[in-house]
Each structure stands twice: as C-alpha cells, then as structure tokens.
Amino acid sequence: MPRTSVFDMSFGKVYQALVAKAERKGRTRAEVDEVTCWLLGYTPKELATLVESDTPYGDFLRNAPQVNEHADLITGSICGVRVENIDDPLTKRMRQLDKLVDELARGKAMNKVLRG
Predict the structure, then answer these.
(1) Which pLDDT score, from 0 to 100, does residue 78 have?
(2) pTM
(3) CA angle, corner 58, sides to 55 and 63, nearest 5?
(4) Fewer CB within a 10 Å sphere, N or C end of the chain?
(5) Considering only 59-68, 78-87, 98-107, which range has the smallest mean pLDDT?
(6) 3-state secondary structure of 42
(7) Which among 64, 61, 62, 91 has a CA at the least distance from the CA of 78?
(8) Three-class SS of residue 70?
(9) If you average pLDDT over residues 81-108, what whole number do you get?
C-alpha cells in the first residue's frame, strides 16, 4: 500500500490531530484555532468551513490568505528538525503550525506562543 503524504490528507483530519494533541494537555480547540488563524491569516469562519471540507492539507497551507509577518520568529526543533532551517515553504508552514500547537500543549502562555 503506497504511503500518503501529509499534504494530501484532508485538512480536517490533520486539524483534528492538532486539536487532540492540545486537548490532551488541557488546552482548547479555540486556542488551536487562534494560533492557526494568527499564523495563516484565516478568519475563524473560514477555518471552520475548511475543517468541514475535503481540502487537502497542502492546499490549506498553500492558499493561506496572509502568513503572519512574525512567523519567522517561530524557532526551535520539531521532530528533530530546526524549523528555522527548513527551506521548503510548504513544509516550513506545516512545521511552524506544529510548533505552535506543541508550545500550547506544553503550557506556554498564549501571548508568548503568538510571539507577542
């Protein structure tokens, strides 16, 4: 059976995994929505629509309305890879979102997660 790229998976499925990661550590779906909207420029309504659609995760990232100007302040390691050293823009956005959700799950204050 061939492997499916995460970019080909539906955004809704990936999103549910991100929410589950945060909720296991006492954070909320609303907080995951907040960091996702902050990073990619979606409105909460647009995000909710995309969660319910069959939009591939790659398209969700590729079609982001406005990547936050402070996204490059997201640094650190995720899955053993330094986020700031990733060259591919799509992979970098995916890892930045993972990093933000990880920081939420570790209990970091929202203003620090959002680089405030």
Answers:
(1) 87
(2) 0.93
(3) 75
(4) N
(5) 78-87
(6) coil
(7) 91
(8) coil
(9) 95
CA distance 24 to 98: 15
Binned at pLDDT 50, 70 and 90, residue 1 comes out as: low
Query: Is-contact 58 8, C-beta < 8 A?
Result: yes
Alpha-carbon gap, residue 73 to 52, rounded angstroms: 30
Residue 78, H or E segment: strand 77-78
Cα(12)–Cα(73) distance, rounded to whole angstroms?
26
Residue 26 amino acid letter? G
* Alpha-carbon 62 to chain mean position: 12
Location of structure tokens 């890892």: 95
- For residue 81, what is the enclosing H or E element? strand 81-82
What does the buried/exposed string (b/e) look like for 28-41 if buried means 16 or more CB atoms within 10 Å of the residue's CB? eeebbbbbbbbbbe
User: 8: closest CA among 53, 54, 70, 68?
Assistant: 54
Mean pLDDT taken over the chain: 95
